[in-house]
Amino acid sequence: MKLAAALALLAALAAQPAKPKPIWARNNPLPTGFNPGEAFPTIALPSAVDGRPTSVAEFRGKKLIVNIFASW
Amino acid sequence: MPVWHAALEPFEKAGKVAVVAVVQDQHPDRARLFLQWKRVGWPVLADSLDLLNLDTVPLTVAVDEYGIVRFTELPMSATKTIGETFIDQTYPKPASLPPIDRGRFETFTTWTMAIEAFERDVQRNPNDGPAQFRLGSAYRARYDSRERRTTDFADAERHWTRALDIDPNRYIWRRRVQQYGPRMAEPYAFFDWIRDARQELAARGETPVPLAVEPGDSEFEKPDPRALAKAPAAEPDPRGRIRRDAGEFIGIDATAVPAVPNAGDTVRVHVTFRPNAATKAHWNNTADPLVYWMTPPSGVTVASRAVVAPNAAAEVSLETRTIDYDVTLPASAAGRVTIPGYALYYVCEDVNGVCMYRRHDVTVTIPVKH
Prior knowledge:
The complex is a heterodimer.
Chain A: H1 2-15, E1 44-46, E2 53-55, E3 63-69
Antiparallel strand pairs in A: 1-2
Chain B: H1 3-13, E1 17-23, H2 28-37, E2 44-46, E3 59-63, E4 69-71, H3 82-87, H4 111-124, H5 129-143, H6 152-166, H7 171-180, H8 193-203, H9 225-230, E5 250-257, E6 266-275, E7 281-284, E8 290-294, E9 301-302, E10 306-309, E11 316-317, E12 321-328, E13 336-349, E14 354-367
Parallel strand pairs in B: 1-2
Antiparallel strand pairs in B: 3-4, 5-6, 6-12, 7-11, 7-13, 8-10, 8-13, 9-12, 13-14
Helix pairs in contact in B: 2-8, 4-5, 5-6, 6-7
């Protein structure tokens, strides 16, 4: 009897829709926005020197370290 | 030089790896100055608008020769070199590679075009945080350009604040708002390194990368001691006898951050001074520096009634000057708080070839949230 009640409770819990994670709980612990195995975004960004649109994809052909930072 | 720069150097010299920097600064030339100071010659891409849609910085991402992310932190340790873990590894070639995303950004030839496009994004979905942030950053970029409109800075602040309200976990967005806001309880040294960098570069005999926009006082942990030392203790023109400049020589606009504070809040006021190109006006740096004097109404608190913008090193110059200061509103503030003030400065013009001392009256108005 007890087993049947426990199974029924588990079934009821399983049937409930999963609560969406609060926004602060997503991407923890350290969100990067990049995932191993996926392509690095190919969006063209302006060169800080002359404004020429440049994509990280233009560096294909050799290994690349992309260092993303702010000077502050 | 950080340890990982040194670890990469032999591989860079052998042509086996390249490094590219992506900077999240609103003013990317400051990052160029930083890299010049650190003797780093990487290509620098500017992501002022956060098109990469990142939460935080710094990030170091290892990407293989096909453009595929392999590591989201530097794969090196005390026992494994980055050569063993990444650079000398062989990765499979994907069946297809995504093309370069030229995006809409490349089609914009003016900041106004970018703002119009981003405004449409925000109208379609006002709860799109990245769109709000992009729009704010585009407004600030236009404010710093020849296309500038006097309301651009306030619009930037409004959209950045809205973006952060939508998603308060975005560290980059939070710092962008703080950068121009009131001095924090624990002041953050956003750009204090610039003073050191310029001194060291000068000592090395190098010309520092010029900055399009100098950091304001709120972007330093400590106020500029030169400005504090030269601030007058007494009102410099109490009887209003100095001849006025109504913008013929120097154009002025003021922006409060946040634009619409609560009663009792502290607000950062930015006042910007631009020589008028039509009269070929320029600063005369062989005289006293620009002084801004304000007369806050009862209950409104400022640290000093005088603020000084130091002269440039050259005898004459054309730069935009900015002063910024904190104003604390009384808890009883309502409606609009008005702070009268004026600037006194030495300016020359090249139409008639004369130099003069002028006063420019400025009234800062801060609407208080209901």
